[in-house]
Amino acid sequence: MKCMTCVGLVAALSGVTSASFYDNPPVEQPPQGGSPLEELQAKWSSDWAFTGISTFAHLPHQKCLTTPSFPFDIAILGAPFDTAVSYRPGARFGPRAIRAASARQAPYRSFNHRAGLNPYTSWASVVDCGDIPVTPFDNALALYQMESAYTELLARPPPSAATTTKVALSPWQHPRIISLGGDHSIALAALRALHRIHKSPIAVLHFDAHLDTWHPGAYPSVWAKTPGSQSDFTHGTMFWLASQEGLIKHNSSVHAGLRTRLGGESFGDYDVDTDQGFYRIEADDIDDLRPDGIAKLIMQRIGTEIPVYLSVDIDVIDPGLAPGTGTPEPGGWTTRELIRILRGIEGLNVVGADVVEVAPSYDGRGEETALAAAQVVYEIVTSVVKRGVKERGGDVKYTPGREWLGGGAEKESAGGLLAKTVEEVKQKVLGEGEAVKDEL
């Protein structure tokens, strides 16, 4: 039996308004010349996270290598190469996975509250430049292709260079390329191109579980005894090769997040690494130093002026949180710890970066590794854009949200302020608790 009261209520409501859920104006055929562009933009230019072609953060896409007339300040560039790995292949699909995982980022909703800006809608032109079409059959040719592609794109003037106040001194005479790997060996091609363009060695900030400065002879083989053979080029030797070529600035470069095993029965691998001028920060160091301490060590070592190549192997994160990688090592940092460190080094002069070794075939159902990589790219782009704002004399918005710090108090006093705030809250709760007891 129907509820008569309910029927009456529906009838009463229907008399109140003539509108319904389904009422929309009739669809009209557009004029022969098409609808006005402004109207089309208003209707169809925005995408949901799950719609649209998969570009990084729904950024505009250009195949930049074939469109020299299209200028950009920051390029997101895929390098789908993975035939220099020593363990599990699959990182050639990393760029695709990272782009898919970045779908919840979008220019209209990417304001970074910690930095006080939206990196995709600030002064910089940020574009997804597609992928380098890298051969999977010949590593020597692949390396040459990647070096050629990086050199081609870095040589182009960014659109912001013309609006920079100190053009002669600006590091923005060349665009920035953020690479989506691919295995870690792609860094050699990027460093070669950066050295050629900047005409000087580049400091390397290297987040990784592994050294990647191994002498090629560290991989035992009776089959490859000729120096300079293709087998010298791996994702564990590329920084050794770069150092031998004079591409890396010694005594200004840093490894962070190390927890690798060494070869043989001694610290020989560390000796080789030290000879290349790297400073080592172990994964365990975070227990004593915390993320802020790690960031401070890095800044003290590198400073704010030296051109830096920021290279993030996703295996710096513990495989329990980022399983989709080629050479997983237990005992790594959390995603949050890595992000906190990246935020603490935003003052670096980053002239190029990569996020590598994402192998989606080993990832979980929730895309944990790819999601972490997409967030890392977002943080890197944010920091690069924020530094650019300051270089151009702009202001960065005050960042609210950490009310326990007090009204703009210096961070050095944050510990004391936090202790005071916690004590006040504790007293309030205890006081309310006593009042409740009294009432009972």
From TrEMBL:
Spans traversing the lipid bilayer: none
One BP annotation, GO: putrescine biosynthetic process from arginine, via agmatine
PROSITE patterns listed in its UniProt record: ARGINASE_1, ARGINASE_2
CDD domains listed in its UniProt record: Agmatinase_PAH
Entry keyword set: Hydrolase, Metal-binding, Signal
Signal peptide: 1-19
Keyword Hydrolase applies: yes
InterPro entries, per the entry: Ureohydrolase (IPR006035), Ureohydrolase_dom_sf (IPR023696), Ureohydrolase_Mn_BS (IPR020855)
UniProt cross-references to Pfam families, sorted A to Z: Arginase
GO molecular function terms noted in the UniProt entry: agmatinase activity; metal ion binding
Top-rank lineage group of the source organism: Eukaryota
Family of the protein in this entry: Belongs to the arginase family. Agmatinase subfamily.
PANTHER family referenced in this protein's UniProt entry, alphabetically: ARGINASE/AGMATINASE (PTHR11358), GUANIDINO ACID HYDROLASE, MITOCHONDRIAL (PTHR11358:SF26)
Protein name (record): Guanidinobutyrase
Lineage: Eukaryota, Fungi, Dikarya, Ascomycota, Pezizomycotina
